[in-house]
């Protein structure tokens, strides 16, 4: 049964689009048929992160207003056979899209794909309502900052009103040393406040920015921390149970020996 | 004839005049009789004011009927209506009274942007997150962490309290007073309670409440509220 998952956060700039692109890539790596939907009308950038900007001919508004068929607007990814993108429009505004049109499109996409990931715009008005309309699931992205957690809380409250399964949480941009020093909210603290299930944690990694600037989602690389995080989240979406990864810094030889003998730092 | 029968029993007490109106008679008949009685009574100017208590028995009066009655008595200069008592009330009023004295139970997390507003007392099983607001005309009890805003006694009841398992609010409001959290980060305190003392919101251990607000006990409260 196909699943439509909306990726939302309330606050802007916490990594919704990056998360959508990477989870889509990671699910495609696991041989799933995936469609990414960008609903951030007027401020699209999922296509840029995926490196597919130059292939756009039709967009989601063209589909909603009947100027083209849904299949015509879908853009096939350069790396995978079954990863597609439905891009947002750059010139229209969010009122050109309606929740009803979204529900219709998602129903059509569900016949073709296993997973439909919906990239939600920031904010809680029309754009958010459109993005949430056809979703079965929601993933709330937050960073370990108070303002971001506050907005995530607001969004979770709004999602409770929708006919949708309880949302799951992704904590993005974790800086281990800051959390250790107590300069950032800890994972436990965030979960305590938001009281929803944790789907995954992603480290703050310079590689993520580098990769998305090149239009290559980080999940394609096999060695970076963030990439492993996204792949783990994808596996959890498929129902596997994967332990949370630890963000301990690379250890020197001495520390490794100490650890081997059961001695702990600090 | 029936309307020749007396519908009004008048008693003079030390506190003033007491009128018992027969609840079986037509209201118009009662009013007519009252007008007659009042016209017979004459007060001289140097007499002090006389308070009047009216007992309606099982009669229910509409607002305008009640006003008619008050007006009639007020027309005599020396008479002042002290109270109008009745043994009956409307369903709406009864429901309102019930709601005011009820404890409303809410079992959810109150998240940022959500506002819960109840008439009566509010008991929350769950957390109030920063940005969330709970309001009650009565007391507020939180079985969980209070990290948002709580407002007790919204209609002005200064006796109301706010109690929480974990007290770490952004703001506390009781009646028209408010207090805010300190500007530095706090962990919050467990099992605390806020109430007004000396025109200020005080926070103290929950155990202190029994001394400060003995009227919180259910039985006495229902007596107090009639």
UniProtKB/TrEMBL annotation, chain A:
GO CC entries: cytoplasmic side of plasma membrane; cytosol
Pfam families: CbiA
Keyword Cell cycle recorded: yes
SUPFAM superfamilies: P-loop containing nucleoside triphosphate hydrolases
CobQ/CobB/MinD/ParA nucleotide binding domain residues: 5-218
Keywords per UniProt: ATP-binding, Cell cycle, Cell division, Nucleotide-binding, Septation
GO molecular function: ATP binding; ATP hydrolysis activity
Binding site for ATP: 11-18
PANTHER family assigned: SEPTUM SITE-DETERMINING PROTEIN MIND HOMOLOG, CHLOROPLASTIC (PTHR43384:SF6), SEPTUM SITE-DETERMINING PROTEIN MIND HOMOLOG, CHLOROPLASTIC-RELATED (PTHR43384)
Protein family according to the UniProt entry: Belongs to the ParA family. MinD subfamily.
Function: ATPase required for the correct placement of the division site. Cell division inhibitors MinC and MinD act in concert to form an inhibitor capable of blocking formation of the polar Z ring septums. Rapidly oscillates between the poles of the cell to destabilize FtsZ filaments that have formed before they mature into polar Z rings.
Protein name: Septum site-determining protein MinD
From TrEMBL, chain B:
Pfam families, A to Z: MinC_C, MinC_N_1
Keyword entries, A-Z: Cell cycle, Cell division, Septation
Keyword Disulfide bond: no
InterPro entries: CAP/MinC_C, MinC, MinC_C_sf, MinC_N_1, Septum_form_inhib_MinC_C
Ranges of residues in domain Septum site-determining protein MinC N-terminal: 8-84
Family to which the UniProt record says this protein belongs: Belongs to the MinC family.
Quaternary structure annotation from Swiss-Prot or TrEMBL: Interacts with MinD and FtsZ.
Protein name (database record): Probable septum site-determining protein MinC
Classification of source organism: Bacteria, Bacillati, Bacillota, Bacilli, Bacillales
Gene that specifies this protein: minC
